[in-house]
# Entry
Amino acid sequence: MTTHAEPCRNAAQPFGRVMFAAVALVTARLRQLATAFRHRHDAAILMRFDDRMLADIGLTARDVREAFNEPVWRDPTELLVERVARCRPARLTMRAAVVPDAGRARALGYPR
# Structure
């Protein structure tokens, strides 16, 4: 025997899924926004660095200004990371570290 409640329950399932998806989307976006604000606050310290200190980490004052000229909801550290990676990709991958190896030194990444 079928009741009138069964069609209502079956119709409510897709609505519940849609609501759950919407809430999950809004929650994810709010987390991204909170992370962007936290990173913006942390990256504001770079504004106080002089050119020499910024050069040590592979940035310029112009890079920092451009990162903070992005809209407030965007994470400025994404642009800064991109600038650092673009300026010195070979330096990061080609770094040779010297480690002791049975009384002699060898560069990492090279065969014995």
